[in-house]
């Protein structure tokens, strides 16, 4: 019980940040555009990478530094769209908040994993984070709805599915930091880069989204970055 006291405040803070980022990403996608929002979210990897390198004094090879650089470029190329100039640039505050918020979330995850919890506490910690996020989401929905809100079955089922996926994402990510014996800076870079490349390919296969030459170059560069980082 004593050990849990050390990480409990971080679990509460992270749960609150999770639900805030969920609403921010949704709002930014509507106002600033999906491309800018995705870019801001994934480029936030620079925060946990720098945090790991500086705070934990991680040392990686020159080749892996090159891999980090090419991974960042790969993210930029993969999410690029020709109509990006049509994005309303007045809504710069939302992507900026997502950039800072996502970086803060990932940095907290790394700090807690390395300093505050043991490997056998990962499941409990993840449960606390998402329980807090659930409570905050219920409170926010009730507080912002002027009318009495009701749960629609499809929305509820999709919400549960999304929650389970995000729970698994945090759980397995923290276990990757614990058990792969890779530098955490590389784990963060691999994770974000792989998500962008995979979702781009999935969007092409399932939703017939068109990949331009720049997007394709980004995927190729992502694969090259993966090789350099391993």
TrEMBL record:
Coiled coil: none
Keyword Transmembrane helix: yes
Ranges for domain EamA: 94-229
Keyword Transmembrane helix appears in the UniProt entry: yes
Listed Pfam families: EamA (PF00892)
Top-level taxon of the source organism: Bacteria
InterPro entries, per the entry: EamA_dom, EmrE-like
Gene Ontology, cellular component aspect: membrane
Keywords (A to Z) from UniProt: Membrane, Transmembrane, Transmembrane helix
Segments passing through the bilayer: 6-25, 32-56, 62-80, 89-112, 124-143, 155-174, 186-207, 214-229
Name of the protein in question: EamA family transporter
């Amino acid at each position: 019980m004593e050990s849990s006291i050390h990480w409990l405040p971080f679990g509460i803070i992270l749960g609150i940040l999770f639900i805030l980022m969920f609403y921010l990403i949704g709002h930014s996608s509507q106002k600033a555009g999906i491309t800018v929002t995705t870019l801001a979210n994934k480029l936030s990897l620079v925060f946990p990478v720098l945090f790991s390198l500086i705070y934990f004094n991680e040392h990686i090879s020159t080749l892996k530094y090159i891999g980090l650089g090419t991974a960042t470029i790969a993210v930029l190329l993969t999410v690029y769209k020709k109509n990006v100039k049509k994005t309303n640039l007045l809504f710069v505050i939302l992507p900026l908040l997502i950039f800072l918020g996502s970086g803060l979330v990932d940095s907290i995850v790394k700090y807690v994993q390395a300093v505050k919890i043991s490997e056998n506490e990962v499941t409990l910690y993840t449960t606390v984070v998402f329980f807090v996020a659930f409570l905050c989401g219920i409170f926010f929905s009730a507080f912002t709805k002027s009318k009495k809100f009701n749960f629609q079955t499809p929305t509820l089922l999709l919400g549960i599915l999304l929650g389970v996926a995000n729970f698994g994402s945090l759980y397995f990510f923290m276990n990757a930091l614990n058990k792969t014996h890779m530098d955490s800076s590389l784990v963060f870079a691999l994770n974000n880069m792989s998500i962008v490349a995979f979702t781009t390919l999935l969007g092409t296969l399932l939703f017939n989204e068109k990949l331009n030459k720049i997007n394709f170059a980004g995927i190729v560069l992502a694969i090259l970055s993966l090789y350099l980082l391993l």
